[in-house]
Known about the structure:
DNA recombination, Integrase, three-stranded antiparallel β-sheet, single chain
Amino acid sequence: xxxxxxxxxxxESALFPPNLDVLRYLPWSAPAASSAVPFSNDRWDLRAxxxxxxxxxxxxxxxxxxxxxxxxxxxxxxxxxxLCLMQPRVGVEHHLPDVRRSGHPPWSLxxxxxxxxxxxxxxxxxxxxxxxxxxxxxxxxxxxxxMTPASRDIAIRSLRAFADYGSLLTHDAYRAGxxxxxxxxxxxxxxxxxxxxxxxxxxLIPDEVFAPLLAAALFLVQVAGPDLLAAKRELDRLxxxxxxxGVPGDRRVDEALKGYLERLRAEGRKLPAAxxxxxxxxxxxxxxxxxxxxxxxxxxxxxxxxxxxxIQQAADTLGIAGGGILTEISRVNLADGTNGAQPWRGEFxxxxxxxxxxxxxxxxxxxxxxLSGMRSSEIAAIERNSVKREEFAPxxxxxxxxxxxxxxxxxxxxxxxxxxxxxxxxxxxxxxxLTTKRNPLLLSEFAPSYTNFRSWVAVHGGMAGLNPIxxxxxxxxxxxxxxxAREIGWRPNGVIAGKIHxxxxxxxxxxxxxxxxxxxxxxxxxEVEHERRQAKAAAVxxxxxxxxxxxxIIGLGAASLAAAIAxxxxxxxxxxxxxxxxxxxxxxxxxxxxxxxxxxxxxxxxFTDPRRARCLRGVADKTRPLVGSCEPTMCAxxxxxxxxxxxxxxxxxxxxxxxxxxRIPAGERQRVQQKIREVEAVIEPLLAxxxx
Length: 692
């Protein structure tokens, strides 16, 4: 390494020659015919490498722009470190202790290193630092304060690279023996909890956003998607049909136009309107769409005086509206039941087929992301015809998807299999039908696609009975995986279960996976189990809180639960004197009862004695309760708490509402009335506590 000097000629590296072909120097393959990428270039285009994941095909990933580092001395220093990171052989051969032993993924280098180096050098320049040898720990900590908390560990690793490879650098490096934050781990240096603590920093999508989002995505996949495919087939048929030239006086064109207009009258349809951008005075009718429907090559032949007069007269009687593709639109019932079943949209037009294709591909992505547990990079890597049907056990069918696992793998990743439910398969197959791309779920950018999706729901979703999606939430793909794990672990009867049979997802993500530790499926299972443990701990804590407040617990399992609370440290659950540290009480009760707790909508199942489980009568496998078959008023393992009262009240209101139907037979009416009395008897003790 030499001291910092002013150089009239371009700086050169003593570590790498200027004509070194970076593309061939890296530990991955590139076609022999691809152009060389000299080390001296300030832009390295690496797209020819064979390791790019599906989502990283844009130039922001495939090209490294070193020119963004303004200082030429620091620029060549960064280039040396960048190439060392991607080619680990350099550090290994020089016996450097703290360097990478595997190649840094080239697609993440611009974002995870170069962007931080650019900001680091800009910061040093503003501080009057002209050489890395002048850098102190104070400079490093001041720079870290300019970073967001979530990016600080990446910033620390980026700054340390100049210390780890310092002995190899030609023109500038930190002073000998200096390494930012020493040998502390990057997470520890930021003050964050260690990754092994399983702290998930990904924001949890709130229900008020997720419920309408999932409902809209499922509607577009399950209802709108088939309609769009039918419209695309109709449009393709019209475009591929032999077309007439339509010269003046061609009676075939006139007959076809007459038949087309008669069909519109018979079906109560309007003439297709021109797109707003192409409308001119007196030309609001879309001649292109009419020409398609009557098999005419040139729409201008419809301007022939006699023909256009016929079209104008039809427009006066029928009216005009956007559309023109005469595919039948599915009818839906609005949520409030008003107006009966009506089409969820007007007719398709050639333009709307294109826009709806983009929209429904976004919906396919959302369904897969929300209900599969796959990471965004894994979804993007799904290729055509990747869904396989497999008999997991006699009579049990599983659907598996093959994709590429990237996280924790060398660049290029490796093939992996995920087990998914039918709704995910439907979304993937629909996406395949809507595009000819190799990766049907690959979106160029999620943010603008999601913005358009949300805008469509707000403007047009009302016709389909959809609720608007709140705009005050910054949705990113990684949040879907966290939300699914949370719903499975905490709320088996929550938002997702309202749209999808959640048990199917839970089974698919537990029975279906047989992955090794560290794989995506196994990691998702671990996340689900972590959320389940957290949910159980929170439920036990609520039970202790309620006991401390003297709230009543009812059900056949209430007495044994009250005894367990007393044994844990509350001498009397009714008076709830504090005799032990509250955390000790929760911990003791968790050890005694936490593993047996199954959270249900109507009651908590404390599965302490399988022989007493009402739901398992006649069932051979008694290892776990059938929560969906719970009879909480008749099971000795069940306890009903105040938090369950809203669900009981909702069921009670539904029973009472059913009595207003005069068609109910007398015997059935008596049965419903008896059920109402039973439910009222159950919840009366809970409701009595709420009365002043």
